[in-house]
Design goal:
Blueprint: E1 3-6, E2 12-14, E3 23-26, E4 33-34, E5 45-50, E6 53-58, E7 65-67, E8 70-71, E9 76-77, E10 83-86, E11 89-95, H1 120-124, H2 132-141, E12 168-174, E13 181-188, E14 194-198, H3 199-202, E15 203-204, E16 209-210, E17 217-222, E18 230-241, E19 246-254, E20 282-287, E21 292-295, E22 304-316, E23 321-328, E24 340-342, E25 348-351, H4 355-358, E26 366-369
Parallel strand pairs: 3-4
Antiparallel strand pairs: 1-2, 1-11, 3-5, 5-6, 6-9, 7-8, 7-10, 10-11, 12-13, 12-17, 13-14, 13-21, 14-19, 15-16, 17-18, 18-19, 20-22, 20-24, 22-23, 23-26, 24-25, 25-26
């Protein structure tokens, strides 16, 4: 999907044509784009894509929705570069044209083998929730095909994240016996369902215990069979380290409690080396923008992407490590808690533990290096 909504912080929200309700904008956690500005209504506006067109709708907001300085009173057709103001926040529309493949020359010999199809469009569409499964398959199969590649257009800037997006999951720890709870993002470590997330997503820092009596964690994984949906599973905490602000959970059953099928397998996140990361290197954060309390499993249909750089590194005397934090120029908040941090090759090099944990470093936009999580890995995953 070529349409994106860009926050002032630089986060990009893909707008899927498959979403009947569009990309919702508002102050409450059940929106896709969550803005805490007091001038933003609970459910302020939404953007719907139909074909190549994107339309902006106001939801009867108190302060109105403004397009290029004009308050809208009816749906308005959007163009690339349009500026949308909700409350005191200005958002921008972006359009990435679909890539066009160059026709391949006819084969020089009547060989039976077919030429390799280009999977670049799937990589481009990897940021779209409805095609995440296809992007993962394309990423896995491309190296195994032996036929000559067809010439293609310049790769999309999002292609580097094609392998990481399907391995990004939604994590919900129910509070008490209700459907709501603590929500955040997680990352798949192993095919058997071992997940890394932030400590406070699954453990209450005030008590050191799970948010519910059953120690139950729900994990939403992008479905390979049903585009634009999440498959839900039950998980339990394998290990939680408050000092490192990270936790590892393990999927053990399907949503209804039935056993996992023998064919159960998830796409692990490509791993990088955070010790090899240098100051000034490009990094990216991928997250479900729905962190915090009071959110239910109905959310989690959109991913946000933020790109920036590693500014520097800070020690953590509490756990006696020299490289305890990676500081970044990416604006981070509670809505990014548990988000994987990727290097320029799309490999996992860090995890955002949330603003409370990051505040211990003395720099709000700090992330935990992925190498700190390695002691949390246990056998059997």
């Amino acid at each position: 999907m070529p349409w994106f909504l860009i926050e002032p912080s630089g986060y990009r929200y893909p707008i899927s044509e498959n979403e009947e309700e569009g990309l919702s904008i508002g102050r409450t956690p059940d929106n896709d784009v969550i803005l805490t500005d007091p001038g933003v209504s609970r459910h302020h506006a939404y953007i719907r894509v139909r074909g190549q067109e994107a339309w902006l709708y106001d939801r009867g907001s108190a302060n109105g929705t403004w397009l290029n300085g004009e308050r809208i009173t009816e749906p308005r057709l959007l163009k690339p570069g349009d500026r949308i103001q909700v409350g005191n926040v200005t958002l921008e529309m972006a359009y990435l044209p679909p890539e066009v493949e160059t026709p391949a020359p006819p084969p020089s010999a009547p060989a039976a083998a077919s030429s390799r199809p280009s999977y670049l469009p799937y990589a481009l569409l990897g940021v779209v929730l409805g095609l995440l499964g296809v992007a993962a398959v394309a990423f896995a199969l491309a190296p195994t095909l032996r036929a000559p590649a067809q010439p293609t257009a310049t790769p999309s800037p999002y292609a580097r994240y094609a392998g990481a997006i399907p391995a990004t999951v939604f994590v919900l720890t129910p509070a008490g016996d209700g459907p709501n709870g603590q929500a955040g993002t997680g990352v798949i470590l192993t095919e058997k369902g071992r997940i890394l997330t932030a400590y406070s997503v699954v453990i209450n820092p005030a008590t050191g215990r799970s948010y519910n009596r059953k120690n139950q964690v729900m994990v939403g994984v992008f479905s390979r069979e049903q585009p634009n949906t999440l498959d839900w599973y039950r998980a339990h905490v394998v290990r939680a380290d408050r000092g490192r602000d990270m936790a590892v959970i393990q999927i053990f059953a399907q949503k209804d409690g039935s056993p996992l099928p023998n064919s159960f397998a998830l796409p692990p996140m490509p791993l990088g080396d955070s010790d090899a990361l240098e100051a000034g290197a490009g990094i990216a954060v991928i997250s479900f923008p729905a962190g915090g309390e009071g959110v239910g499993p109905s959310i989690g249909k959109a991913l946000a992407l933020g790109e920036g750089r590693a500014v520097g590194f800070l020690p953590d005397p509490a756990i006696q490590v020299e490289r305890g934090w990676i500081t970044t120029d990416i604006a981070l908040s509670l809505s990014n808690i548990g988000a994987p941090v990727l290097d320029e090759s799309g490999r996992l090099v860090g995890l955002y533990p949330g603003p409370d944990a990051a505040g211990k470093s003395g720099f709000a936009n700090s992330i935990r290096p992925i190498n700190l999580a390695r002691p949390l890995w246990v056998t059997g995953g």
